[in-house]
Amino acid sequence: MQDSNNTYKYSPTTAIKRDRERGREEMDNREDLKSMLPFLPLLPCSSNLCWPSQVVKSLETLSKGPLYSEVDSGELLFNAISHIRDSLAVPSLQPLAPFTHAGHALFFDELISRAEAAKWFGEVVPALANLLLRLPSLLESHYQNADNLFNGVETGLRLLGSQEAGIVFLGKELVAALLTCALFCLFPASDRGSKRLPTINFDHLFEVFFMKSQMANDVSKRKLIETNNYFILEGLVSFERKVLPLEQLPLCVSYPEADFWSKSVVSLCPFEVHSTGFIEDQSNGALEVDFANKYLGGGALHSGCVQEEIRFMINPELIAGMLFLPCMEDNEAIEIVGAERFSNYTGYASSFCFSGDHVDKRNVDSFRRCKTRIVAIDALCNAGMRQYKCTYLLREANKAFCGFLDQSNYDHHKRPFQDCGSQGSQCIQTDKDTNVVVKDFQMDEAPSTSVEIAMNRGEYINQAIEYSDKKGSWCLDHEDKISIATGNWGCGAFGGDPELKSMIQWLAASQEILVAKQLWDCHHEHAHTLRRPSVLYYTFGIKSLQNLNQVCQWILSHEWTVGDLWNMLVEYSSQRFNKETDLCFFAWLLPSLFAHDAKRSNLTNPP
C-alpha cells in the first residue's frame, strides 16, 4: 500500500498474502510431498492441494447429516462413496473388491444395532465428511510446519522407501483424516504394488462381512468401529524406519556379522518371565514388540486376527503407517511412537472378542506423543528347519537388534561430532559390566565393531551433549528406555521355535547399547544408577516355555555373556539342522533339569 509520498506502508493483509505465496512456492519445491502425490486422492492446483469441485459438493452434502444427504443405510453410504470415487478423476484408482457393496449393507443394516447405525449416520459420517473437507488444509499445514520440528531432520509425510532411514511426524487430526480416506476407499492403489506398499483401503475388510464366517464378521466389525474415537484427539504420532546399513561405516551402527555376536562380552540383561498378561498391558514404559509381517499391518485390513492385527485394531492410528511405509528388508524395522489405545479385548484369533472401550492414561512426551513405543519386526516366515542354519540365526538376531536399538537417540548424540569434522576421536563401547571403556581411532577410520561410536574425550564431550540437547531429539526421555516387552515372536503362523526365538531376543536386547543414556549418566548426577535394559517376556501360557524362567535364571547365575549364549545357540542349531539331536534347546542345554521334570511327570502320571 502506498501513501501520497509514494512510500509503502505495512499492510497485515499484504503480509498474509505474501506468507501464503511463499508457502505455496515452498510446497511446489517439496520432494517429500512429490513422493506422496501418486498415493494421495488430492489434486495439485495453484501450488496447493485440493479436492475436485464435485468431491467437495458431495462431502459438504454428507457433512450436513442424513436429513439433508438422505444417507441412512449401508447401501446408500456405499453409493455416496462410489460417487465420490468416480468424481476423483484419479487414473490409478483401482476397482473395489467385488463384494464391498454387500459388506456395507450387511455391516450397517444388520450387524450393528439400530442405535449404533443411527449414531454412525447421524454423527460419525458427517464428522468424517468434515474431516475430509479439511484434509487439504491439514496437509498444507503439516508440510509448512514439518521443517520446524527439528534442525536438519526431515519429518514431513513422504514415501520412506527401502533402506531409507528416517522419521515422519503426523498430527493426530491428519492421521484421522488419512484413516477416513482409507475407510472411504479413496487412496489410489494401482502403483502401491510396484513400491511394495501394503493395502490401505478398507474395501477388503467390508468384503469380509459378506464372504466370511460370523467370527470374521465380529473381528472386522470392531476394526471399523475404531474410527469413531478420533474427533477429540490432539498431539502427534511418529513413524520411523530404522535401518542397519549393510556396509560398515564410520559413526554408524551397521549390520553385524556372526563374528560380532560370537565375540561379544556384553553381559546378558535381566529377563522377567510373565506367564499371564499381554505386551500392551505393561506399565514400565517399555518398547513393545509387534510380531509383524514384512508388510506393516499384515492382515489388519483383511480378516487377520493374530498379534499384529489385534494391535492395529486396538491402536488404530498404527494403520496410517501402512500408507507410506513399504515392506521391511532383513536389516530394517519400523518404530511407531504415540499411537493411542482405544479398545480392550479377550481371546486370540478365532476366540478374539471386543470387551469394551479403553481409556489410554499413559503420559505424553515433549512432542505430545502418547508414551507408547511399538516396534514392528518381521520374523523369518515358514521357518521350518532352515531357522537352525547360522545364516538365519544371524538374520533373526540382527532383525531384533535393529528393532531394539534406539537409533534416534544414537543419531541425536552423534550429530555434534559429525558437525565438528574429522578430528582425533575415541570409541565408547560397553563392557560386560556396563562400564564404559575407551578405544582410540581416528574420526575418518571405520570403528572396529559395528556398535562403536566415535567421539572426543574430556570437555568436548560435555560441550557436545549440551549442544545436542539444544538441537532436540525425537526419542522419549532417557529414563523411559529401559525394558523391552516381547513374547513368542514369529512362533505362530511363521513356524518359529519358541525356545530359540526367546534366546535370540534376549541376546539382541542385551547387546542393544543405550549410548545416549550412558552419555547422559556419565555427565550428570547419579550416573551410578544406570540400569541395563531388561526383557519382559510374555509367554501367553504356551507349554514349550513353561521352564523358560528356570533356564534364564540358570544362565544368569553362570554369568553368561551375549557371546556365550550366541555360541551355544549356534552349536545347538548346527546339531538340530544336521539331525544330530531332536531335543529342544532347553532340554539339550540342561538335560539334568529336564530329565528330573520328565521323571517327576512319570511318577505323577503313571501309564
From TrEMBL:
Belongs to the poly(ADP-ribose) glycohydrolase family. This is poly(ADP-ribose) glycohydrolase. GO terms for molecular function: poly(ADP-ribose) glycohydrolase activity. It comes from Salix brachista. Signal peptide: none annotated. Residues 1-29 are annotated as: Disordered. Residues 113-241 form the PARG helical domain. Its EC number is 3.2.1.143. Residues 16-29 have a biased composition (Basic and acidic residues). It comes from the Eukaryota. InterPro entries: PARG_cat_C, PARG_helical, Poly_GlycHdrlase. One of its GO terms (cellular component) is nucleus. It is an enzyme of class 3 (hydrolase). Keywords: Hydrolase. Residues 1-14 have a biased composition (Polar residues). Substrate binds at residues 293, 307, 348. GO terms for biological process: ATP generation from poly-ADP-D-ribose; carbohydrate metabolic process; nucleotide-sugar metabolic process; regulation of DNA repair. Residues 259-511 form the PARG catalytic Macro domain. The active site is at residues 290, 308-309.
